[in-house]
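Posted in: Structural Biology > Protein-Ligand Complexes

Title: Requesting predicted complex, magnesium ion in pocket

I'd be grateful if someone could produce the 3D structure tokens for the following input. Sequence and ligand are given below.
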Amino acid sequence: MENTSYSQLQATGIYKSFGRVQVLNGIDFTMDTKDAIGIVGPNGAGKSTLLSVLSGAQAPSDGKIILNNQDITHTPARQRAKQGLVRTHQIPKPFSGITVFENVFVAAIHAATNDREEAYDMALESIKLCGMLHLANREADSIGLLDRKRLELARALATQPKLLFLDEIGGGLTEAEALALVDTILSLSERGIGIVWIEHIVHILLRVVKSLICMDSGQIIAQGNPQAVMSDQAVIQAYMGGSVDVVS
Amino acid sequence: MKIKRSNAYSMATVIGASLLFVALVSAAFVASDNVLERLTVLFVYVILAAMWNTLAGFGGLVSIGQQLFFGLGAYATIRLADFGIPPFVAVLMAALLVGLLSWPISKFMLHLKAAEFGIGMWVLASVGHLLVNLDPLIQGETGTSLISLNVYQIETRRVLIYLAALISMVGLLIGLFYLLRSKAGIAMQAIRDNEEAADSIGVDAQTVKKWFFIFAAFGTALAGALWLAQASSFQPKTYFSVQWTAYMIFMVLVGGIGRFEGAILGALLFFAVETWFAATGVWYLVGLGAVAVLCSLFLPKGLWGAIESRLGLRLIPVGYQVTDETLKSHKP
Amino acid sequence: ADDDTINIGFISPRTGPLASFGKTDGFVLEQARKALADGMTIHGKHYKVNILDRDSQSDPARAGQLAKELINQGVDLMLAISTPEVINPVADASEAAGVPTLSTVMPWEAWYYGRGAKPGQPSPFKWTYHFGFGAGEFYKTYMSQWALLETNKKVGVMYPNDADGNAIRGALVPRFKEAGYTVIDPGAYETGTTDFSSQIAQFKAEKVEIINSFPIPPDFAAFWRQAAQQGLNRQVKIIQIAKTGLFPADIEVLGSLGPKIASAAYWHKSFPYTSTLTGQNGTQLADLWEKESGEQWTQQLGATLSLLDAATEALKRAKSPTSRSDIRDAIATLNVTTIGGKVDFTSGPVPNVSPGPIIGAQWVKGTGKHKLDYVITENVTDPNVPVTHKLLPYNR
Amino acid sequence: MINSLVQAILLGGYYALIACGLAFMFQVMRIINLAHGSLAILSAYIVWRITDALAFSPFVSMLIVLPIMALIGWLLQRVILERASKGGELLPVLTTFGLSIVIDNLLFQHFGANTRSLASYVGDLSWESYEVFGLWIGKLPVIILCTAIVVIGGLDLLLRFTPLGRQIRATAFDPETAGLVGIDARKIAGISAAIAMMTVGISGTALGLRGTFDAYAGAPQLLFAFEATIIGGAGSLWGVFFGGIILAIAQSVGALIHPQGFLLGGHFIFLTFLFARIYLNRDFFTLRHWLGKKTTKVEQHEN
Amino acid sequence: MLSAKNLDVRYGQFRAVRGVSLEVKQGETIALIGANGAGKSTLLRAIAGALPIYSGELSFKHKVITHAASCDRVKQGLSLVPEGRRLFTEMTIEENLLLGKTINRAGDWDLDRVFDTFPNLVKRRHAKAGSLSGGEQQATAIGRALMSNPELLILDEVSLGLSPLVVDQVYASIEKLRDAGTTIILVEQALDRAIAFAKRAVCMLEGRIVLDKLTADTNRHEITEAYFGLQQSATQEAS
Ligand SMILES: Nc1ncnc2c1ncn2[C@@H]1O[C@H](COP(=O)(O)OP(=O)(O)OP(=O)(O)O)[C@@H](O)[C@H]1O
Ligand SMILES: Nc1ncnc2c1ncn2[C@@H]1O[C@H](COP(=O)(O)OP(=O)(O)OP(=O)(O)O)[C@@H](O)[C@H]1O
Ligand SMILES: [Mg+2]
Ligand SMILES: [Mg+2]
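-- Reply #1 --
Done. Output follows.
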């Protein structure tokens, strides 16, 4: 397991269990921090859990996580966030008692910069990028579910991430909205932000990612070129079924 | 300007508050004894309400055990005075000591969630009380008195305590104001709403909570020490009584929880109610309880919350408002 | 205050947990106001007398605040009664403000040492005075009471960690020992304790025949019921309690365990004195109360009236009854007999204190209209009080 | 020593009984009822009033009081808790705190300052005892302990295995969604509160029988109940039973160490449990993992 | 079967649903579409009784239910799978499903059948719902609604968060329901799927219904058109 010189996120032998339930079963996973990677897999495969482990919200039961040659297995989430490793939550967790702007601002001022003016700009910028400017002064508990998901994204963006973990932020969008989202993510990717995106709407995902991972029962069952992964027999069996929703 | 943090009202508030402060300072030399003594009590109430609001309103940490710090503040004052430290120095030192003590306490207590925190604090207050009872100087519930204050002439003493309370209150309120407007202030509210999410965006929840906790402990201890200074008697049961927290809850609930102005308004109201109705005894207490219940049910944001949403009045803003121009300028 | 009105502040616990002390105060004040309706003539000058009574609500913080308010309203004399929770904060406020204050009904040691006075040093108090029982009186009374029955002289003591308990422990335990008693002291307990099995076990093992305690009513009920469950009641000949047992209701709740509990009274309706203020004697006062309220008399009736007696006597003796310092001087040299007995500040054990009687008594099954009667068994601290009954052993 | 232990267990039965209503509301209805102690005193007063006025045995009076308490619970839910719990987790805490002040003082206003007890109405039962192997075991504490077992066991079965129990839990968790699956949420919430208050009625009677009470006696009862509840953990109501007993044993041990240690002992065990739960839980998983996987211990992060 | 006249639903001052009228006939299947924030969930929740109706009238099977409690609506056969699942997270899957049976309406849905339909739930049946993955939760939520044997089943964001395989399974089972004559309203953002499944498409925009047609008579283009105005600006804003 020798370290490579360029910037890289590397997870080796990740196990995670909740009591008796074994959720992650030896995940090995490496990515360049500028990659855009998609993760698919049946419900309950452990995708979100993997994300939690990588972002530091949960500690792995076993395994090692290395970012840029540095062991971050035991680094708490808040420090990973400051190092540029940020996630969104599948079930949104807004700060419901403060406004949308404040939600995003608190992220900017704590993870990205100490300068207030700069943080204002960063916050406004990410809110704008997520198309929520008109909601900026609304209290976060008065916005609907999809806006909450957008808020998750805006908040994560305001931390000026280097590596962004997205957990099902495209669900429930109309097609036009989804396409807009794709544009947003692509632009992030072009800026050199690494993306790990969990999504069930495969055709949207495939517009963004260069490489795809499919998980099942806490293991990676296929990874690499998206087209190849999607036509993998194991993937079709575990994930796609006879679905019409194939690569378009 | 992209973000507004103050408004026309808040400018007026600053001026008004400064004038009021000057007036209150000069009152020390002209007002009647009774007025000075009552105002001292009011200042202590304002401190108590503001400190509880700091924890519960902005941090979601509902403590039913703030009497711990109130009592310890008074106790430490007695102890220090017994060592021969001049009483007013002892008051400040006591508050600082209790603030210091609250740091290790915070290490444990802040890991607790919601109700466990609240009740845990209550139990801790009870432990503090029982431990203070073991001190031979205090002689258990017998207590003792801060007789070293008797060296001052009654007039001097009254004025000194009044000024000490006034300055403490103003200092703590200003401190609180800056704390809330700082980056820790907004972080505290984020933690209140969802600690895990706050953690995921780089907020150091334990540290932020710790500072709020220590600040509130310090302020509450100062209030306890001041109360002792103006009452002289120290009986542990009195100072470690949950009733102090009940008063704090009442003031904050009625005034407006999570609102800077609310705590102050609540303290004023409580003070007024106490002044006028306390003599009615049982019915006064029944009334206090009933008003607290009604307020929490029908005015969950308190009187100030109602005023704020009715009139759009924000005297002491601690939040962030994106200006209309910014909103417009970003629209295509 | 204007020159021909004397204002007296009066603070007592009328509501809250200590309300059984203050229950009769309204009635006694009414008697006093009637007597003072025409004012007082002192050194040839006529004064109106105004009593401003306040309810501390059993809250010491409030008691202190009320005292300050009354002081600022210009009272000439402050009175405080019943328990350290009322008296100490009031006395402290008065001491700070220089207002003469008279109080009664708490052990004077807790009043004196509990407010920062140190033994052997001069009194730090210039304005505050207290009369009534103290540990020394309890000692005399107990010695006299316990000698009435044949026992093995083993005393189990249960003193809580409160003002009364601490004042009593320090003063009594060594003296019991000197007097030849074996004292089994498990140590101070915190009020609110609900299980006393270790103390009970110890008392049983040591075969104590006398128990002495200063508990609050809930603690005593818990203790004594558990003691009975453990069979301790069968070996105890004298159960001598103070504080609980002042009022009949405290004993009634014990049901069949209540009668024959020994007690000590700071006042009893058969005290042979009359009030200097109202002219009533004990029986008249108690009967009037029973008639008006329908409830059994309590020793608080006489205690409150004796405070008012002493206060008015001091006023009469003051050079000018509207000058705080003159009143203070009058109190300092006061020597009168009130409905509660002698109040004498000229010869106290410490300055500012006049010790008063505490008479041995016992609760027995009622023979008249009450469930329990309170009878006098001993009178060493005031021989003028007639002994009416023999002390009955508890376990028979 | 053994005697102390036996006494502690008996006392623990009382704590469990007084705690179970609180725990029911806390664990199941998610309401922290700070008026719990005051309500227990209220019920004790009602039992006392009926017993005194009608010369019934307190046990009979209790049977009369149970429906009254149920009604009080139902009203409490409808008038106060329903609204309060909409405002989040904190609001009921504050509301019931206010309520307890109201109840205490109204009780004082109505019943006055005298200490009361139910013990004088049951003859010598309050202090009679069995003598077993040289141990004296009070009859009343045994009755109370058994009652605690029956009440807690009954509630536990009700909650776990009956449709009503399921509906109660669901309603407490999310009344709106409960409505969407066809539960009459208001009715069920009312029933839950009524059940909780009936247990409070029982514990109030126990309180009145074993000790004395006055209008302000609620607060310490509340604290004991809370300690038992939290020591017992949030798992099931049985936890509360053991919580009560552990609390009582800790108090006894505290009293053995230092005469003033009775209450302190209870508080310390409470705090110990509280923190042990936070810290051990984390270790617990890693420990299991450690044994299973034979890898180095992995520290868990706070989150 | 369901008839809404001029429904208005508000959050405080904000009118989220504005004068919506909608007739649903027995056996119909309706796809409710609309942009994010159009008011779909609000409308459905108001129909199910989870939100108060500000004005207008709602009737179900010829009975006015404008102000009926949500549990009474379930009793009459109206069941909602809410957006965001809203499971009882501290209870097991099985308990969640059994709760759906609180109103024991006649019909053939029971535990076994739900587990047949969602086999991925079987091995987790005694797990707390809160510990499930998003998709497992969605399946449980649908199962719970089915347990009451509804006549009108309303599904808000049916396939949100489900893997394609499970989406297929879910659709297979609601197709069975549809074919058995159950009336269904669903919110589905995957237009193709919605059009393929439903006989009628209803499109909302800013709280109003702007299109209501049989799917046979319309096409993707017309539907996208229906909320185009909003879409265009959203796209611009985001890019
Ligand atoms: N609790 C609430 N308080 C205030 N406004 C709300 C609330 N919930 C939703 N809204 C607002 O009501 C409008 C309609 O929301 P609704 O959730 O019904 O839309 P929707 O069509 O279901 O959208 P989505 O596709 O996001 O689920 C939105 O503007 C939203 O911001
Ligand atoms: N805190 C927890 N306790 C117990 N089990 C858990 C916990 N969190 C997740 N699980 C279990 O771990 C498995 C993986 O969950 P995870 O949320 O990672 O799935 P996922 O791949 O994200 O699925 P989905 O696509 O449905 O979101 C699931 O079976 C879930 O029930
Ligand atoms: Mg997931
Ligand atoms: Mg919706």
